Amino acid sequence: MTKPVSYKRHRFPPQIIAHAVWLYFRFPLSLRLVEEMLLERGIAVSYETIRRWGRKFGPEDARRLRRTQPSPHDVWHLDEVVISIAGKKQWLWRAVDQDGYVLDEIVQTRRDTKAAQHLLTRVMRKQAMVPKRILTDKLASYRAARCQIMPRVEHRSHKGLNNRAENSHVPLRKREWMMQGFRSGGGLQRFTSVFSAVRNLFIPPRSHQSALATHLCRLQAMTAWKAAAGVLV
User: Fold this and answer.
1) How far apart are CA 127 and CA 197, in angstroms?
2) Mean pLDDT of successive 10-residue segments in the chain (233 residues)?
3) How far apart are CA 34 and CA 47, in angstroms?
4) How does DSSP assign 101-141, residue by residue?
5) Contact by Cβ (8 Å): 223, 232
6) Which helix H or strand E contains 221, and what residues bound it?
7) Cβ proximity of 221 and 4 under 8 Å
């Protein structure tokens, strides 16, 4: 049985803490903007406190959210994007399914076959399955890694086929700009794991729906978030 989230020894009510964490990870907002939004509601809290809340409660909220995510499909889109940290290049490797849900992501210092193998191994372990097909760009490391780890899995490599994975980098790029970059590879890994879990929850279904259906999906996502954060009344 999952233990409830503990907000003991915190001066602010759990609802305020959970709301601040949600604002920070859900929208392209800086810590200072979240501070300002809370102040408009009469809640005076510093941006450094919000940072500590996100670092303390964000990872646990993300773990709880992942248990409620829909089952992944059998097509994986893989891609990597370069992130400059302290003047040095690091690579964020990401796997998403055909609906755009982030399956896993990992920050690595290399862009080679070993790094691609690490990504594939992690995704298979977390998803407890092997995909029917993977789609990548033309980076040769993916083909070499696939041949060693999942040789029977179909692999298609074409830049135009991998838009799903490439588009998944856009929200993080916006956050990177808003946050004026990341301070360390570990900090990027911690942030993106929470950021993607929250974003997955609020991704609308791909099928065309009415405005009412979309509204209901968002309300269901909000309810799931509050349950994960331990503030569902």
Assistant:
1) 14
2) 80 95 94 96 96 95 80 85 91 91 93 96 91 92 95 88 84 89 92 93 75 87 93 80
3) 7
4) -EEEEEEES--SHHHHHHHHHHHHHHHTS--SEEEE-S-HH
5) yes
6) helix 211-229
7) no
The confidence score (pLDDT) of residue 49 equals: 97
- Under a CB-based contact definition with an 8 Å cutoff, are residues 132 and 153 in contact? yes
**Is-contact 104 186, C-beta < 8 A?**
no
Q: Which fold has domain 75-191?
A: Nucleotidyltransferase; domain 5 (3.30.420)
Residue reference for tokens 């290049």: 89
Q: In whole angstroms, give the CA distance from residue 175 to residue 133.
A: 30
DSSP 148: H
Q: Which one-letter DSSP state was computed for residue 100? A: S
Question: What's the token pair of residue 124?
Answer: 């298979």
Indicate the domain borders of the chain: 1-68+203-233, 75-191
Closest CA to 67 of 201, 199, 180: 201
Tokens, residue 220 = 């269901």
Q: Residue 62 class from Cβ within 10 Å (0-12 exposed, 13-18 middle, 19+ buried)?
A: buried
Residue 196: other Cβ atoms inside 10 A: 24
Question: Which of the 8 DSSP states describes residue 67?
Answer: T
Cα 92 to the center of its chain, rounded Å: 12
